[in-house]
Each structure stands twice: as structure tokens, then as C-alpha cells.
Amino acid sequence: MKKLLLACLTLFVVTAVNAQNQTGYQVGDLASDFNLKNVDGKNVSLANYKNAKGYIVIFTCNTCPVSKAYESRKEELNKMYAAKGYPVVAINTNDPVASPGDTYEKMQERAKEKNFSFAYLLDPDHVFTKKYGAMRTPHVFVLQKTAKGNEVVYIGAIDNDQQLANPQRDNYVQNAVNQLLKGEKPSVASTKAIGCTIKWKKEVSK
Description:
This protein is an alpha+beta fold.
């Protein structure tokens, strides 16, 4: 009986995880463009990057400790790959009412304080957060420009070493982009995004 209950529980958990993973884009899907407000006051879309070969789209925020831990690595990724055709485009997922530290003004302050070289955009109604299927902060979607559109080629974490304590760290995003630059598809196309849950806007009752 215990084995049966354990099997049922395992099946339930696997089904729940799979259902969660099936929301939003999957690897191989074509991602839609967006037109969102950057911290410099200008709107930014993927189409603005005329010479891009693809994009490192990172759903993130100001307040999550995990997102903060990865700020320098987001900057490093942009410095390593923007000139090679894969710029970082960061999008704040959090509702500023649910998370006051994620207001547009706080985003501007954070970008200035950390001297971000990448676009840091606001998704005020979670439209693209939901469309892409971001569930955590940070949550990465690497896109590749193709004749058909921007193909999703990697989804998940930046790496598997939040504390920078593992010498055997797997640099998922770096590896994916390096393979793309060689004309190959990423050998690891998806990993589990580890971070804080998104602070969603509360539904207004009618």
C-alpha cells in the first residue's frame, strides 16, 4: 500500500512539474518580439538590435537574492557576447505593488548603481513574462535569429553555481551561446531555473 501511495505521489509530482514546464515557450518555438520601456526612458524591442544573431533574454528583478547574486554574471554575459551578436536583454517581471522594490524608479537606481551595459526593461502587466513562460527570477531564454523568426534554443538557468563555490560549474548559457557561434545547436537545451517566484499583479475583482 505504501509503495502504491509513493508511486501515485511520484506520478503527481512529475505530472505537476511537466505541466509547469509546458507553459509558455518550449525549445524550438518561435518567440515573439516585445516593445518595453528601458531604464533610459526609451522603448526597446529585439528588432532594435539590427546586427544581432540572437539574444540572451533574462527575466529578472531588483529584489530577489538569486537575481542579485547573478547581476555580475549578467553583465559578464553581455560584455562577452553582445559584440558577437548575442546581447543580454533583461526584463523585470515583478509587479511593483506586490514588490515595492521593483518600481521603475528602483530599476533605474539599480541600473545606475551597477552600471548595467544591457537593456533593463519593465513588463508591467506580465504580458511577455507569461508569453515566454518565465517562472523564476532569473529565468533565461536564449534565442537564435533564423529565417522563420527568433527560435528558442535554450531555456533555464545561467549556471548551476549561485554562490560561485563550485570549480566544476556548468556555465549553461555560455556553453549554449558558444555552440551557437560555432554553428551548432546547444547540447544542453534546457535546465531548471532556480530563483525566486515571480510577484504577480493581483487580480482586481469586478
